[in-house]
Write the structure tokens for this entry.
Amino acid sequence: MQKPRLVQGNQAVAEAAIAAGCRFFGGYPITPSTEIAEFMAEQLPLYGGKFIQMEDEIASMGAILGASLAGEKVLTATSGPGFSLMQELIGYAAMAEIPSVIANVQRFGPSTGRPTSPAQGDVMQARWGTHGDHGVIALSPASVEECFTVTLKAFDFAEKFRMPIILLLDEIIGHMRERVELPEQHEITSIYRKQPTVAEDRFMPYQPDEDEVPPMPPFGAGYRYHVTGLSHGHNGLPSESPEVARKLLARLHEKISRSHEEITLYEEHFTHDAEYIVIAYGGTARSALAAVKTARKLGINVGLLKLITIWPFPYHIVERCTRFAKKVIVPELNYGQLVGEVIKACGESMVFPINRFDGEIMSPERILVQLKAVARR
Amino acid sequence: MELEKYLRRTALPHIWCPGCGNGIIAAAICRAIDKKALDPLKTVIVSGIGCSSRMVGYMNFNTVHTAHGRALTFATGVKLASPELNVIVVMGDGDGTAIGGNHFIHAARRNIDLTTVVINNNIYGMTGGQYSPTTPTGAKATTAPYGNIERDFDITKLAIAAGASYVARATAFHTVLATDLIAKGIENKGFSVIEVISQCPIYYGRKNKLGSASKMLEGQRDNAVMVKAAERMTPEQLQGKYLIGELYNNPAPEYTAEYQKIIDLASGKGGK
């Protein structure tokens, strides 16, 4: 382990990216994510890596996807409005199966909103922001240390499943500084995309292995192939066949769903005997844990399910965790987004949302008041 | 010359209409690659979306058919990540100068080593004949049924103003010239733009009563003037004509080479 340091959440994302082997960053400045770009601009050249500030967020996505095709592990970082511009090529990355990591440090919106204030308003944008139908992996860290460990996971998932991975921070987590002990480089193992084992003349670029993921050689390594956003067969060439389209689309979902256990990251606190379960993620999960601890002291049997993987939504974990609960409380910094998925898992009568949507943090007191009220009923 | 080795037989036949200029220009690009003896394994061809952008699917290199207007952003990422690769970009007029216009000027400004062939047929062909930024004022299109009131871009002037270090123009009729200019663009270490005027007899030609594909090719022959020849012509004689040949050649610091200096500088300061 490294010596203890005071590190900012955004910086931890950037440090983890480099530790994971990311050697290309393309981005556009936007509050509250800009520290990630600044750190990468300074650090990447030291490792022979490349940083480029593009003309907008669309171009940033295009640049990282091009670099990924050339064989690099790649990162971009943004916030809500920039995340919207990236959606077009996030769809391309899903369809053409290009490993990439996109950090969205959420701020209050819509539109310019309160650019330096936190929110969790892009939860559904992370799931459904791009066009068409496809699987998504979105991860939401709740501490500076998790910014580091979850970013490492994001790169592993991107490389393993050949897809864009969304790192969903909020301004609280992105700008917070905490004392952390991060692992040394030699303590970190990371995955690189599978390489083909056949010669070029027998190589089918989009023929999946048993895990539903095709190998991906970098451009220039001796395998010429075609990459397109059009529906394509195993040979990578455009196809009009409904059968080819159906199989491709199913695979984009199933390569994720078949590995849901590996993908689902979460923590349970005091859930074993809990009558009440709080489900929270990101910055809000910190306040939720504080509230749960205080409530326990007051004799309320409450536990916390902290979700790190929010997409694919872990319905099975939520169901198991809330099976014997009387009520489920879902605090979020939005008008109500992930709570809809909790309702799908637990039923509407079970669920109490707590929503704050003014750009301020969810205080532990606010959650505690609601916990007391629910427990009194 | 044997062109077939540069084509993907399994991807053919192509989707283009009879009389389209895209095939002629695809051949010119292949000939230029052959002339420069580029290693196909180390050559990447990137395109956007539109009729001309479908070209890369037929070409046996490392090829990316990206999203509408975004070819240059992907190409920038490929080239910066792996400067040893030869990167060629194929775009249409709407693709490259409308939806991709911002990327176009910024790639030119950076002078990144990409050879960009903009195929200009004055129309959106794939969607059935809507006006583009290069549809001449007064010309008709399905979305300009009463005539286009917008002014058209001169792609080469746009490229020069934005900082491209090599800019040239040819036509589908002047295919030998097109091959030479693309080869020179490949040779230039920087952002090169070769506009190739092409014909869309099905949408642009029919809507504007320009006749058959061969009539439109004859129009290219008659309206294009070589840069050298134009020097001896009066403004009256040049009325309604456009220049072809090398329009600008002014080498400038190239982006990926400049970035390598940053890496050297940073590592000199105690790199890892």
Q: What stands out?
A: Residues 144-161 of chain A form the longest helix (18 residues).
